[in-house]
Amino acid sequence: MTLRRPSGKDVPVPNPRPQGVFGRRFARDLWRLVRIYWASPDARIGALLLLGAIALELAAVRAAVYIADAERRVFDALGDRDTAAFFAAMGLAVVVILAFVLASTYRLYVRQRLEIRWRRHVTAYFITRWIGPEAYCQATLHPEGLDNPDQRIAEDVRSFVASALGLSLSLLSAVATLYSFGQLLWLMSTAWPVRIGSMEWQVPGLMLWVAILYALVATVGTHFVGRALVPINFDRLRAEADFRYGLVRFRDNVEPVALARGQEREREGALGRFVPVVGNWLQLIGAQRNLTLFTTGIGQANGLLPVLIGAPAYFAGRLTLGSLAQTRIAYGQFSGALAWFVNAYQEIAQWRASIERLSTFLDAIDDTRTRLECEGIRIEPGTTPALQLHDVRLSLPDGRTLLDGANGRIDAGERVAIIGPAGTGKTTLFRAIAGIWPFGEGRIETPAGARSMFLTQRPYLPLGTLRQALAYPAAADTFAEETVLEVLHFVGLGRLVPRLDRQESWDQALSADEQQRVVLARVLLHEPDWIFADDATASLDEVTERRVYEIIRGRLPKATIVSITQRPGVLPYHERRWTMVAGDGGRVTLQAA
């Protein structure tokens, strides 16, 4: 897939679908994500925790070897009916089992301590990359490669970190187990006879080769049966996130849906978004059924092999009962380690999907940032306290021109209304001045050293207390208590004073009129030098709207005001007009007066 830049060049969009379980792309993506944490300052502490986790993994494997030897001693004592040897062997078994329990418990504890540090850093990294000026353009430039960023940051980061640690440490444990129990199997099965009819052979390390052959067959079979899980898990994350997002969106818009009598349509939409979840789930459980059937079958059959193959040596008197029991344990540990890939396949498939989603997320962010840096409208700090447009051309993301050849100047202290028919690009110009609409050409000089606030038609009230909403984007304790109470009364919201520090969903608790009053109170608290308002008083009645402009003019007499508006009652509060005029071919020009 490609997108066309305003310049007419085609730009490839990162492919959001996984290409396979392993390969060059997987290695690149994995390294890219791993170094986010391990190249950070916190990696020093993380390295200490990792070394501790590795040491405990190896200790657990060594304890397992001692448990196998203790079990041999127990069964030999039982076979010899030696009471003293039996209780001595049981004492040894208790000690090594205790050591194994402690090592197993603390290896999990240390790993989880490292996991939360790693996850905290990677989550902060993604939040920092995502929540920035470029975020507005992400969905426009990457409509197919950037679905559900909240899911990727919350769930995919968690899954990636947990599996990265879990799989790597379990693989280390498997390698240590192969070395420790492989030696034991080789020594114990060196003299085992293999009989076919009247002929007999001795194969050095017989059980070792049986375990290797069995594991190879199991691994190849598991990969063949389970490879479909990678794309299925990728799609599962997307389908679940889309379904959940729809439910959250309804929750946040209950009132307009109810007023529009749209409950039936919302139910249909929610059920429709659940259909892919069900379909994906059916695919997933079908693939898991096939994989579980295969892995469970070979696992159960594998448990019988050491007894079956060791029986002739036992019956021939070449093995004791304890040695046969020890061989069974050693074979189980060795073959289990060889079957690491088999047992971890489903988690690897889910981990691969998480890596793919996080990598395509970063690809989209990087691609967007590169485009914004390399071309588009340039936003530069000016040398004068004025806003200036120099040959600004606004385009749509597909390259179509919206506004052409815009030039204009607004000096500090002026009040300018931007007017024109709907669809002529007034709001797009507003976004370009704010620096979040890069599509087009030209240069915009911003006022030197000025503090600006941009007000939209739909107010934004962050999660938290009303005090936090008033102070946004500053900290809640930025403004003095008496100042906060004063501006609340000034905008007619004095009744909310008792709820100032209450945690509520304020965008749901307040009407559109009250939300715009909160934003007005925010402006009065911050006292910006420049105020850009895009129909920011549209929810107010005309009397209140006029009073708002009178309040701003009275409280902030030196502030520059640039308003997008169509309401005649607002125009008298502005001395100048910027008019958007639609010309031939649908192109719009700006007439600054």
Description:
- With 593 residues, the protein is of the alpha/beta class.
- The protein folds into 2 domains: 298 residues, Up-down Bundle (ABC transporter transmembrane region fold), CATH 1.20.1560; 215 residues, P-loop containing nucleotide triphosphate hydrolases (Rossmann fold).
- The chain is built from 18 helices and 16 strands.
- The strands form 5 sheets. The chain has a 6-stranded mixed β-sheet with strand order 10-13-14-8-15-16, with helices on one face. A 4-stranded mixed β-sheet has the order 5-9-6-7, covered by helices on one side. It has a two-stranded antiparallel ribbon with strand order 1-2.
- A hairpin with a 5-residue loop joins strand 15 and strand 16.
- Helix 7 packs antiparallel against helix 9.
- It is elongated and about 110 Å long.
- The N terminus is likely disordered.
